[in-house]
DNA sequence: CTGAAAGCGCTAACAC
DNA sequence: GTGTTAGCGCTTTCAG
């Protein structure tokens, strides 16, 4: 049934080890031999047995993707985006991805690791005090974290530079003349749980606001239409001179424009809006929102590249059709003084869409638009 | 470093095979022996080596999840939903999930299968003429398809009963007195590609419309705000007496209410809306839409259960905390006359939200609401 | 540059 | 009810 390396060897008139070395490239093989072997492999449609390989070679060519399962700050579209990017990049390096959901504590992670099922791990949605970090540290398996824990414990981290994102939003609005801004944030609980990215964003916003002489009012938001509407009504009554919003909350962002219209404020004529979050949420609304995307794809790709670098010296990807050969972590990285060893923080990029414009001196509540 | 079965055996004063049999339960072990062995396993923190196991036992306890990668009709939130459900259910059966993206053709699927890396496959987002189906059929690996291909070739299929979903929408509207309905469908291309689910929905809608004396106008829709707005403006001008919409298009659904408001029609006072698609899209709008959800979770769970049934006689799940013991494919199944062997079509469930109400005899275009 | 052979850690007959 | 043993298919010394 299953073709073995011995059959290939016989068919090519060589020994099994030669076939193995042709495949691994771990020792020089003469051109003619190599060709005969490859021909036999093709003809017999040989596929090496992964288990045998793992047993003998102590490497599986599989990376584990540790997913959040319970209360994740990560929203669904992003999750899918991450997985795609990670899977595609991993395959570029000849690796497959094993899904590790930690429903039952961290059993699946520990089992897979100790059972020699994976060569390394990528852990998604890492929070500030994430118990999983200590687990993998103890397991001693090469791991890259997506997110920034308080104690990386020597593990590599990859994330969006949320502080810079916050600053960038304020800059954009300040450049347009806005001086009074509301920051619609994550649900209260997220700040209490110290998720990290939420605080970093807030800090960035506040810092740059001070810098630019912008007044910022921070309001956590539960998301959904009614919560968002209520929040906005209150805060706009409180601060009538607000001319712009920064929103770091996907499920609020999609409603903002509608809510504002209902309050009789046009976007961007009366109020400008900048979002931080999944592109899908920003693009799909009316008007589409100027936003800073969480670059799930780039983050996933970088995470895998970083992991591969750890897996065995600078091995290069198997030239995946369409994937660049990863000439180092240059793209969009704001590595800062940490250099290699510090977290890899991707520089945020602001996409200007239709929701931001110059500030009005007075914010005139008008009748809703009819077109 | 890694504890082996032999070390456990020595520590417990038994042979390796006994340890193996304690773990697999494939032969009776006396109570005292079993206990000693389990104690040793715990004390030494033994984790069987997956590769060795796969090699000797010819089973990996891993299922492959074949994901769409390119032009998928499936939208992101659903994808994530599927994966979670599948992964969680699989772990309930003691299996892990290997992600198989078919970017480079079907190489990853073939490699993983022939390489003995997976015991079975779940294939997502299967279309009517899906080339992957023939591939897995030829590979001869146990596979469950999510979606209905034209030629299942003996493979098991699981899907939502989209025809029934279409009928259910029409019934709901007809019951409310609506007689003139627009069906906002998938993008034109989807119908041309014969994706299957799109046609089945359309058929269901048209059939039941005939049955109930409802007039239906079908319009494919590209999605997004402007396309949706344009489409609606045209069709409402054409058919002024329309009082309800059925929308089978996530990226149009989220805009419908807003667009209608902009046309001066209130939902549901002037126009009722029923959606078929991801719950998230329906729930998040204002007003939230009455809808039939694609039950990603249930579909994923059923797919895995069906696969497990194929993997080796009726093996039972390892009593996962909180997962029901799968007493057969009863829940919500409209198995029909096919019984076991035919596709498992889940019965659609309509969730009434705020977007549907009784039909008005005349559809009076009014001024937009100010609240 | 190539072969022979010793395991990797486990499962599943086959013995008793 | 338990122990012995022969591989599973591959990688990698060690020889040549």
UniProtKB/TrEMBL annotation, chains A, B:
Annotated spans, Disordered: 313-371
Biased composition (Gly residues): 331-342
UniProt keyword Transcription, yes or no: yes
GO MF terms held by the record: DNA-binding transcription factor activity; transcription cis-regulatory region binding
Record has Transcription regulation as a keyword: yes
Pfam family, one: LacI
Gene3D superfamilies: 3.40.50.2300, lambda repressor-like DNA-binding domains (1.10.260.40)
HTH lacI-type domain segment(s): 3-57
Extent of Low complexity compositional bias: 343-360
Protein name: DNA-binding LacI/PurR family transcriptional regulator
Source organism per UniProt: Allostreptomyces psammosilenae
